[in-house]
């Protein structure tokens, strides 16, 4: 019986580890600017979460963020390859919308799987700016998808302080 429990624990841990995506692979970020020019940046291989529950995303990211909830608190978060637990997985999509070769807008969609409104803080790094800027985010009602849009060309967003509306 003890061996069976150990084997079950090992297999469960192995399956969860195979679904985890702790790091993004290196890539070249290419953003349309004005129909003729592009902004290019080399993004190195790095963790999605730069610190505990502080997520850095880039245009083109489509992520499943699996959470652990303790009481009324988001206790932990991790990026996973598959949405195996939809009731505790936030779905996030960040993209640049273009017309021809010209920038139109940036859009972030976030799906809230919880039975409470979801809130987080956001800051952006924009093309042509040297520092990060905070941006406002609308709380996401239970079970719904929120769409945030910006006219700026955003290189990366930092999302943090994930919590439930009280």
Layout of helices and strands:
Blueprint: H1 2-19, E1 23-24, E2 27-32, E3 38-43, E4 46-47, E5 49-51, E6 54-57, E7 62-70, E8 73-80, E9 89-99, E10 102-111, E11 118-126, E12 133-135, E13 145-150, E14 154-164
Observed structural traits:
1 helix, globular, 54% strand, 5-stranded antiparallel β-sheet, single chain, mainly beta
User: Which word captures the global form?
Assistant: globular
Which H/E pattern describes the elements? HEEEEEEEEEEEEEE
Secondary-structure-based class equals mainly beta
User: Can you list the strand order of the major beta sheet?
Assistant: 5-6-14-11-12
Number of domains: 1
How would you characterize the overall build of this protein?
This protein is mainly beta and 166 residues long. 11% of the residues lie in helices and 54% in strands. It has one domain. It is built from 1 helix and 14 strands. It has a 5-stranded antiparallel β-sheet with strand order 5-6-14-11-12, with no helix packed on it. It has a 5-stranded antiparallel β-sheet with strand order 8-7-9-10-13, with no helix packed on it. Strand 7 and strand 8 (73-80) form a beta hairpin. The longest helix is centred in the first third of the chain and has 18 residues, at 2-19. 14% of the residues are buried.
Provide a short characterization of the protein structure:
By secondary structure, the protein is mostly beta strands.
